[in-house]
Automatic annotation (TrEMBL), chains A, B:
One Pfam entry name: HTH_24
SMART domains recorded: HTH_ASNC
Listed InterPro entries: ArsR-like_HTH, AsnC-type_HTH_dom, Dimeric_a/b-barrel, Tscrpt_reg_AsnC-like, Tscrpt_reg_AsnC/Lrp_C, Tscrpt_reg_HTH_AsnC-type_CS, WH-like_DNA-bd_sf, WH_DNA-bd_sf
Domain HTH asnC-type, first and last residues per copy: 4-65
Keyword field contains Transcription regulation: yes
Keywords: DNA-binding, Transcription, Transcription regulation
Organism: Plantactinospora mayteni
Protein name, UniProt field: AsnC family transcriptional regulator
Amino acid sequence: MAAYDSTDRAILDRLQTDGRIANVDLAEAVALSPSACLRRVRALEQDGLIAGYRAELDRARLGLDLTVFIELKVGQHSRKTAARIESVLSGIPEVVACHVISGSADFLVEAAVANLAAYERLLIDQILAIPAIVDARSTFAIRTVKTRGPLPLAQLR
Amino acid sequence: MAAYDSTDRAILDRLQTDGRIANVDLAEAVALSPSACLRRVRALEQDGLIAGYRAELDRARLGLDLTVFIELKVGQHSRKTAARIESVLSGIPEVVACHVISGSADFLVEAAVANLAAYERLLIDQILAIPAIVDARSTFAIRTVKTRGPLPLAQLR
DNA sequence: GCAGTCGCGCAATATTCTTGCGCCTGGGCC
DNA sequence: GGCCCAGGCGCAAGAATATTGCGCGACTGC
């Protein structure tokens, strides 16, 4: 499949908001029969547009009161060290997101931890323990206005 | 409800990975009968631990090739301007996350856009158009190692 | 030891998912 | 203009799943 219409967009839009909506209700919301709707959803999954479904948990209620952004600098760059660093970082449960970035740092990591003590353990024992990481600069989220918001669909063709 | 056990954790863990798993299968995965499992899930939803369910879309396939982090500085701070800025920022579809942060900037925004042209429009027409925003520093994600990863559950009591 | 509470599994019912099928529509081609 | 084909739809039936009431057993606190 290569072209998507406004119905597909409506489906994606709805599923981004409520990923567990019954197909019957989704169908009604986008003005299709359940069978046609389900076929569209399956096609979107097949195409990889829908990568999966996730339950969205509440950080505060989980006891994760601290969201921290950590910029990391790497000493000697090489394909090998980069791969190693990435695999270690993404294996840390507290690491919720991780990007290779432009600018003065090399990685931007988002971590969710319970408190400052947990943050310290994460930073010292896990992140700074990675060889080749020479610097870390942390920024704390004082308040989260929006997180994991829906992706825009306007550009979809 | 106030105390959670390892079965609750297992349920949350599973639902974070596959938010649309059939209750029958979830029940089997956590070694419960379907009815008991469903009651647990409902309780977790009621408690707000499960905030909702979302379809996870693929940015690249949506045509969102650029993830940008934008640090914003605010000129004169006041409760009112802060509230205004937040509401405008979270209303922008491209803004996928937004935090009030510590450090030299005031806001950290994550935006998903199609390309540099779209980024420019977002920055100039939408973000810098907000009064009281005096500076913006953008960092581009060269590659995304991990995004919207599962939250850690180890600290849950 | 006993009553109360909580959470479980079972089973029946309601709801939903899923798939085959025939129909309609629109585009390309004589 | 008319024909043929492909794609997508709705309908309907059967399969699977969700949902709820109910009784039972285990643990708690007295």
